[in-house]
Here is the input.
Amino acid sequence: MKRVILIIAALVLLVSCEPASTYERESNNTRETANALVNGYHKGKIGWVGDQDFWVLTISDTHTHTFGLTGLKSRLQLVVYIYDLFNASDSGMTDNDRFDVTEGEITIRFADTNLRRIHLLVEESEATAEHETGPYTIYHVTS
Here is the structure.
């Protein structure tokens, strides 16, 4: 009987746990030190004034990719930079490749299978005397 109770308790504990998510690793304050972003939810924190958190992934498909942030304070935003590695003449990113997401999410579907590197940046959306810091959750879902 004790074994049955232990097995049931273990199953209840297993079912009640939320899915694992990964946490950002500092220093991820530049494109070169960005954390890898895979499908799923990842936790981060803007820890000080001027902190920037970079995430990166590389894709080469025609799936629909959805990126977003939850748990944001009012002045934090997600900036998505898309860099086409197939047609690129240099490794820079310009404002033409930039998408700002201050609320909700952005969904992107590419018409071709060119290799693309996508950098995602979490930062303050505006410089003001009142700085916002705190935790957030970033996500990437492919369908």
In short: The first helix runs from residue 2 to 16. The CA atoms of residues 94 and 114 lie 18 Å apart.
